[in-house]
Amino acid sequence: MLAIFKKYRITTPLIFYLYNFIFTMEISETSYCGIEFEIKKNGFSNISYILIHGDEETARMLLSEHINENQGRAFFIKSKQREVPLGPTIVDPNRIFSTIGAKKALKKFKPNWDQNELELILKELDESRNIFLFNLFPSEGGILIALHNNFRGYNVNSEIENSQLYSIKKEQNPRDFIICTNLNDYKKLKQGPYNIVLQNIMEEGNNGSLSWAALENDVRYINIETRLGWLSQQRKMLKFVETKLSK
Q1: Does CATH place domain 25-245 in 3.40.630?
Q2: Distance (Å, rounded) from C-alpha 175 to C-alpha 155?
């Protein structure tokens, strides 16, 4: 690019201006049925990122750092809690990306619903979901990367039953792992040092997580999961994923 600038005799101040014009961080907001997200857009890329659990601070730190240094769009949930308010209850925001998953999530903390009230909020979720996902999903062929942290014993072995293929590395902590929904991505990533599972067959009774919505819409999805507090490990895993999948 610098050679092009020199060829057309574009001056250094103008280069600086053009660079900052093209790569200036844009900040906006969106919501999913009242659940608010901040969007940070840096330049142009077919990679989207999301932090969907507000209490996963290591993932938040990494995504904030990463989007400042790399192009793409990053969605940050505007909450510091795992569950967020939705209607008269609270829900896990990563359990409402399918109707069946949302119904289970809504009943978790409020088991006794008026049926009409429940159906109304499920309808609102269905309508809002399509708009939110249209905004979130990258362009065709792009990748959606979710960053997660765990601190309750959740590990890669919890996902094997729901996976079609998996590659477990004995030297890696089972709480640090990658979930992907694209077979070609899995083949590339399994060559690396990290635990990885492939989930590329849709489950009718799924739990409503974002990964299933991505799979249903043929969007390449990657979940990078690490222990809470292990920032350097998650940073290495994110770099590995992006390096491998860029080839």
Answers
A1: yes
A2: 4
Give the model confidence (pLDDT) of 96-114 as tens digits.
Answer: 999 999 999 999 999 999 9
Burial 19-51 (b: 16+ CB within 10 A, else e): eeeeeeeeeeeeebbebebebbbbeebebbbbb
Q: What is the pTM of this model?
A: 0.90
Q: 175 and 227 in contact (C-beta within 8 Å)?
A: yes
What are 220's strand-pairing partners? 143
| Domain regions of the chain by residue span | 25-245
